[in-house]
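Duplicate of #3305? Posting structure anyway:
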């Protein structure tokens, strides 16, 4: 099966008829995979692709579609990484793929293979609607030796009434052929009584209640009403999430209205809008999806706006031939009162074991988004984070000009700042102000974790404080930065002695000497270690080499004298 990765609205527009045919034929399709919904959503989405699979040659139509979005995120420890998510996630009620039933399993295999060609750390399968067997097939394409599979637990939700809501449970009402049958067959006696009373109230002039539906002339006003009511009820609880919902609602609803798939009843009381529902219509799957609602929390409590709007919408759906009234996420008791049934819709993650992107680099399709994050960090004065972003971008595309320019400027500024901190630390060390020196060196490493002078100086300070394990960790980082530095191997040998790892220390000294045969200190320290190991002839030779390189090395001269004295005493005693 061949997979194309479509990335332009022009390509998407050319697929409309093909898409609609697959959508209508897929029993697992849903409104949020309809062509017009995704077309509108992708107009404002970040980097996206629609994976389109065909089973034959290019003259045949596609048999499956998987719309995805590529996200760029930042980890304070590792820097930028990529996540692939299902298009529409966190706004659409459901996500997933479309396929002709006869080709669905083959399409899952083809899409899984294609996804491995992207660079990502997480594959986010949020709110995915897919038969359990097919979902397991998808997971099996990402073997446990390389990938971790996890179910994402949703946030706990306890209502003011004490209900413990499970948001993996999605609720729907199967609709009979007429409204009275719904009342009599699915509703309990108490709910049935209140439902009938609610609908009667709409007909009572003295109650001053009526329901309006949007027209071309009122649509903008009605969307404003909905957003205002929704924000008043929910926005203050989670403002950032609320702004996300409002922004996307304003973007999506006009297109849904134009397509004829928006049903948005507004309940008015005494001339004031007190509640509004957003319902989406999916004639292909005979489903009405309740999506958003908002109500005036200060309205007359004698009115039950939610019950009135649900009863009105249920009756409207039945009269217009719909078979499912989808109430969405959350097993609230009021939903079950309508004779609802449940299904599970969950969130999953497939992640790399390494914690890095597949391939170890950013996905090249996300570099513009990555640079946007670098620019944000730069404006916020976070030079280290911005510089790290630029380095990661350039590792993927060395010719990416904006990152080249910003990176050069940042590296220069960063180098000046780090050099200043290291110089200040060395001054503190000379004056004995160890705490101030340590603080400056740690700040320098926060800005540049690879700064070799800071790593070596802080390691020396920690050795002075008798913290060899911490010093060894820093020197391990230094070895990764400069594996060919004699000074690093020399200092590593010193700390290994403090850890009583004498054979390893000797190897470090030998490596330092191999890299720099003029390093008198390395020969002197090696001589002292050999003396501890009772390899006295080799120790004497090492001290003599140190003095040949640096006749003024008092430590080597003193140690050689002690060694000769010890050796002479041993001979006299013999």
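Output from current build:
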């Amino acid at each position: 099966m061949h997979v194309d990765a479509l990335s332009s609205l022009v390509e998407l527009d050319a697929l409309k008829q093909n898409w609609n045919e697959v959508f209508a034929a897929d029993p697992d399709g849903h409104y949020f995979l309809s062509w017009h919904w995704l077309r509108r959503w992708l107009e404002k989405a970040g980097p996206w692709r629609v994976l389109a699979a065909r089973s034959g040659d290019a003259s045949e139509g596609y048999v499956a579609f998987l719309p995805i979005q590529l996200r760029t995120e930042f980890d304070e420890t590792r820097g930028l990484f990529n996540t692939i998510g299902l298009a529409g996630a966190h706004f659409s009620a459901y996500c997933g793929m479309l396929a002709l039933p006869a080709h669905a399993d083959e399409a899952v295999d083809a899409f899984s293979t294609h996804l491995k060609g992207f660079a990502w750390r997480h594959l986010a399968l949020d709110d995915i609607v897919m038969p359990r067997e097919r979902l397991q097939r998808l997971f099996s394409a990402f073997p446990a030796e390389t990938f971790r599979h996890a179910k994402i637990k949703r946030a706990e939700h306890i209502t003011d009434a004490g209900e413990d809501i499970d948001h993996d449970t999605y609720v729907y009402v199967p609709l009979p052929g007429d409204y009275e049958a719904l009342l009599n067959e699915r509703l309990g006696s108490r709910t049935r009584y209140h439902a009938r009373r609610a609908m009667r109230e709409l007909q009572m002039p003295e109650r001053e209640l009526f329901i309006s539906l949007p027209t071309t002339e009122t649509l903008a006003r009605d969307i404003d009403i909905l957003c205002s009511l929704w924000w008043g009820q929910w926005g203050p609880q989670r403002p950032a999430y609320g702004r996300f919902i409002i922004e996307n609602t304003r973007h999506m609803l006009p297109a849904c209205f134009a397509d004829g798939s928006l049903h948005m009843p507004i309940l008015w009381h005494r001339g004031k809008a007190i509640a509004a529902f957003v319902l989406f219509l999916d004639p292909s799957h005979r489903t009405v999806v309740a999506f958003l609602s908002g109500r005036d929390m200060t309205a007359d409590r004698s009115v039950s706006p939610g019950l009135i709007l649900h009863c009105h919408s249920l009756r409207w759906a039945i009269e217009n031939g719909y078979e499912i009234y989808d109430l969405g996420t959350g097993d609230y008791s009021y939903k079950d009162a309508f004779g609802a049934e449940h299904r599970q819709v969950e969130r999953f993650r497939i992640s790399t074991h390494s914690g890095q992107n597949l391939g170890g680099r950013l996905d090249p399709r996300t570099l513009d988004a990555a640079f946007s994050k670098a620019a944000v960090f730069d404006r916020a004065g976070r030079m280290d984070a911005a510089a790290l972003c630029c380095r990661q971008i350039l590792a993927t595309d060395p010719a990416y000009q904006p990152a080249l320019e910003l990176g050069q400027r940042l590296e220069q500024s960063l180098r000046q700042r780090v050099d200043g901190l290291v110089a200040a630390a060395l001054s503190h060390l000379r004056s004995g102000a160890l705490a101030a020196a340590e603080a400056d060196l740690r700040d320098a490493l926060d800005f540049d974790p690879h700064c070799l002078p800071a790593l070596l100086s802080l390691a020396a300070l920690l050795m002075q404080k008798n913290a060899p394990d911490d010093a060894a960790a820093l020197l391990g980082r230094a070895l990764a930065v400069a594996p060919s530095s004699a000074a690093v191997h020399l200092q590593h040998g010193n700390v290994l002695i403090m850890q009583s790892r004498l054979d390893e220390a000797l190897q470090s000294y030998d490596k330092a000497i191999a890299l720099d045969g003029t390093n008198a200190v390395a020969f002197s320290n090696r001589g002292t270690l050999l003396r501890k190991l009772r390899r006295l002839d080799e120790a004497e030779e090492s001290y003599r080499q140190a003095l040949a390189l640096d006749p003024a090395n008092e430590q080597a001269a003193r140690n050689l004298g002690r060694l000769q004295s010890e050796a002479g005493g041993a001979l006299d005693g013999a």
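Confirmed duplicate; merging threads. The longest strand covers residues 64-75. The chain is about 50% helix and 15% strand.
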